[in-house]
Amino acid sequence: MRNLCWIYFAFAMLTPLVAVAQDDLAFTVERSIAHHGFDGTRCWVHARAGVIPAGQPGNKSQQPLVVMTMQPLMLHGADLGADLFDALHQTNSYDRGETWTDPSLQDSFARQRVVAGSDRLPTGAAMAPELLHAGDETTVCDFTPAWHAASQRLLGLGHTVWYRNDHVLPVRPRGIAYAVYDTLGKRWSAWDTVDLPMEPKFECAGSGSGQRVDLPGGDVLIPISMKEPTQNQYAVTVCRCRFDGRTLDYVEHGNELTIPIKRGLYEPSLTFFQGRYFLTMRNDDHGYVSVSDDGLHFAKQQRWTFDDGSDLGNYNTQQHWVTHRDGLYLVYTRRSKDNSHVFRHRAPLYIARVDPDELHVIRSTEKILVPQRGARLGNFGVTDVSPDETWVTVAEWMQPDGVEKHGSDNSVFIAKLKWNRPNDIAVDSTPATTIGPYFTPPRRWQGETGPYTSPLQFADGSRVTTPDDWRRRRAEIVDQWEGLMGKWPPLIKQPEVTLLETSHRESFTQHHIQFRWTPNQTTKGYLLIPDGPGPHPGVVTVYYEPETAIGMGKADRDFALQLVRRGFVTLSIGTTQSTQARTYSIHYPDLDDVQVEPLSMLGYAAANAWYVLASRPEVDSKRIGIVGHSYGGKWAMFAACLFPNYACAAWSDAGIVFDEDQEDVNYWEPWYLGSHPRPWRKRGLITNDNPARGLYPELIAAGRDLHELHVLMAPRPFLVSGGAVDPPSRWQALNLSIEVNRVLGHRNRVAMTNRPDHAPNEDSNEVIYSFFQHFLGDE
């Protein structure tokens, strides 16, 4: 069933807010109620909404899908402030809040219990199991869902709460809890907790009720409060975590803020506005604010005040941000002359504009966002539903007894802020700040090399310790792999290029060209040259055919088009004929007499494409990279590793090491490293009835893997844009390239981002473009 959402009342705030700057930013507010009704035994709390944008996976409609989570607070026999929560529920709206589905219990958030004699602990208990007894129960509370663009998933964050005999444990572990929404099943995944450093201060660390900031590429800045379980005073810090669509991994954290007043600082919320990060924090006596340039290292906190210097009056409850690209607002509760009957003055809910330089609230802009009706409104959420609307969601918390006499009935309010101009908010960043975080693995993978042998050991067993040693070892690896895969024909260093057709598109010239890419084959491709004087950096793009990369194929694979728009000369090539024949790759000198493994031969063809691009007067030959996705990712990887003229490379979900459990990491196929006489093996996974043939099983038997090729890139930088076949565990192989770069005196040369899906997306591609801009551009 769907509940009809009814409009409570609406009013307009149309006066320009000019106290900070002369602008015409304004919004109107429309309030409605999603659910209401109170039976005296429990009430809805923590109503917070997340949005799956229109057209995204799981929402192919033209409207945003709003998923609002709520939690029942059990009132019968509970002390005031006991926070006795039942499992999370959710309610959805498919029509921008006009109607809502009935709240549905999320079984994955049912309480988990410590069982006597069992070695299996509930989720989140491993941080401090000594604090728990048999019969103790845990669940997640203070949950906040929000869209994570890099993974195209709805990611919810909260923290754990522990009960003993239906009372909150005063000394307990606490962890950053998270779950992912399954759009097909319309339910939340089993929740997990972030694996934090094993330090006492992280044993009671949570991110409940807070606002986070998502960065391009998948990193998430999560503000948390933390303390040792036996201590009373919290500190606030921001954790950088990495989310690949499945697992939220800790990377690092910033400085810590606290004050020696009662419980210190806690329940932080973070936002990004016009180049800086803003952090608002709760204290028992006052609200506090701080600011940072990088989102991790914050200035000393200061108390929230109005612009006339008077205290804001907010205390012992949350504040959250409403962020428009042109204005920053704070939503809060405070003392006022007519709300002394409300618990901790937690209603009404106010909104006012913030002066981002002076870090105070502009009193003249203050408006009541949701009025008080006796019940408290201090636990609320903020979500950007669309560029035109931001919602504040809050449920009337029906404590203490008797609040209903003032008119409250556990209504779940939706306050829709409708902007007078679009709110196109994004984290402003340079190419360096976009790519920078992804040179560092998540903590769990730092230094891990798994089953991969060290490339820093010569065939005779001696170790590489100097750059000169590495030059000799590198030559040894090249000779070994050349002996295995076959020697390339002579490179075509003076290519003859035939111009087939020329057109002008947007701000660049497109040439359809033909050139010889092997001694006995020509190919056709597209050369895109941006308007304006050069020399420009260049990038070769490789795929099944050259049209996709210039914008004439599947979405988000148009690397050549996007890069030429950013000032690169691009050359798009592809194996059109062999793709059509379903033989793929390049079989040299012919299909029935293969002398070089086909994947290596693709690398040779791309090396000759480098000479085509380098011969152009518009191109700086020292600044040429290569990129490809999937099949093209394997191609780009072999080309860049085997041909040192490529200055850098990006490989999108290629499958960068052997992995026989992944059908798409199919190096055993005859068009990659498993060439053998026809008839070819049946395409698919290796089985006893369908074994691998050719070179590939020899490589496996000898214990070889592709990390031996990755290291040939050093010190040239490369990016792995990982998806379904290149998860974070690939850092085990990449760490060996980091070791080689360390010997050479270089750092920040090996990067990886991760997403759950094989297909690239706008966010993952933006990191690729930033990578090339950083290493090949003028930055």
Q: Topology, please?
A:
Layout: E1 2-4, E2 6-13, E3 27-35, E4 42-52, E5 65-74, E6 89-93, E7 99-101, E8 104-105, E9 112-113, E10 137-148, E11 153-164, E12 167-168, E13 176-182, E14 187-188, E15 192-193, E16 204-206, E17 213-214, E18 219-227, E19 235-243, E20 248-253, E21 266-273, E22 276-282, E23 287-292, E24 302-303, E25 320-324, E26 327-332, E27 349-355, E28 360-361, E29 367-370, E30 380-386, E31 389-395, E32 412-419, H1 431-435, H2 467-485, E33 498-505, E34 508-518, E35 521-530, E36 536-543, H3 559-565, E37 569-574, H4 576-581, E38 588-590, E39 593-596, H5 598-614, E40 619-629, H6 631-642, E41 648-652, H7 695-701, H8 707-710, E42 718-722, H9 731-743, E43 750-754, H10 762-776
Parallel strand pairs: 36-37, 36-40, 40-41, 41-42, 42-43
Antiparallel strand pairs: 1-7, 2-3, 3-32, 4-5, 5-6, 6-8, 9-10, 10-11, 11-12, 11-13, 13-14, 13-15, 16-18, 17-18, 18-19, 19-20, 21-22, 22-23, 23-24, 25-26, 26-27, 27-28, 27-29, 30-31, 31-32, 33-34, 34-35, 35-37, 38-39
Helix pairs in contact: 5-6
Organism: Rubripirellula amarantea
InterPro entries: AB_hydrolase_fold, Sialidase_sf
Keywords: Signal
